[in-house]
Design brief:
flat
């Protein structure tokens, strides 16, 4: 038995998989701990690919802004927003690409359980940074295009929408599934 299988079996015996992880329960009772950790890793990889593409495109756009003629005309506040946005974008990029680097360093070390857990946490943190990057990007653009405080109001609305879609809805769905599971067990 490999370390991955031992670790996954120990985890399965100590606590239910879904109570503390992002993945839903296995749809089959025949899923082994090794199959579960492989499934979870494949899920993280797919999610990472989507997020990495978005953050890399946004970050590339942000980097090019400083080299446009209008950049020199920005007010000090707008330049501060730009710097903050670029730093957030770089941080989101680092967080969302980190699972690839971790996998490369740990490949063959039989640490897939730890890899999946670390990658999941980095993805969650990276998504927060990505949402902040998008919000700051919108603020920078809308302050340039929309007069008055309307830019801030619009950005606030978009950030509220992100919070609802990316965080509150998944948490609500998770709680609903947990309640359903409790009532089925009772």
């Amino acid at each position: 038995m490999t370390i991955t299988e031992q670790s996954a079996e120990t985890e399965a015996a100590e606590a239910p998989c879904c109570g503390r992880h992002d993945s839903p329960p296995a749809t089959s009772d025949d899923e082994t701990p090794r199959e579960r950790v492989n499934r979870r890793w494949n899920e993280v990889l797919q999610e990472t690919r989507v997020a990495q593409t978005g953050v890399q495109i946004l970050f590339g756009f942000l980097l090019s802004v400083a080299f446009t003629p209008l950049f020199r005309e920005l007010e000090t506040l707008d330049k501060g927003i730009y710097v903050t946005t670029v730093v957030l974008g770089a941080s989101a990029t680092g967080s969302l690409i980190a699972p690839v680097s971790i996998h490369r360093f740990l490949s063959g070390q039989r640490m897939k359980d730890e890899l999946v857990e670390a990658a999941s946490r980095l993805m969650m943190f990276g998504m927060v940074l990505l949402a902040l990057t998008i919000g700051c990007t919108l603020l920078l653009i809308l302050r340039f295009v929309v007069p008055g405080v309307l830019a801030e109001v619009l950005v606030g609305g978009v950030m509220l929408w992100f919070g609802l879609c990316w965080y509150l809805l998944p948490l609500r769905l998770r709680r609903r599934a947990e309640r359903r599971a409790r009532t089925q067990d009772a």
